[in-house]
Amino acid sequence: MIAHLKGREKALGHFGWTGREAEWIALACLHSGVFTRDQICDWLGIHPRSARRFIQDMSDRRLASKDRLEGRRVCRIYARAVYRALGAENIRHRRIASVRVLLRRLLSLDYVMEHTGQSWLPTEPEKVAAFEALGIERALLPVRVYRGGCRDTRRYFPLKLPVALDAGGAVFVYADPGHDTATGLRSWGRAHRELWEGLQEQGRKVEAVAVVLGDGEFDRAEKVLANWTDPKRSPSRSQASATGREIRREIERIEKGIRGRDKRVTGRYGSLRGCLVRLAELRAALPTAPSEAMIDGFTVWRSSRLSGDPF
Question: How much is the pTM?
Answer without folding.
Answer: 0.81
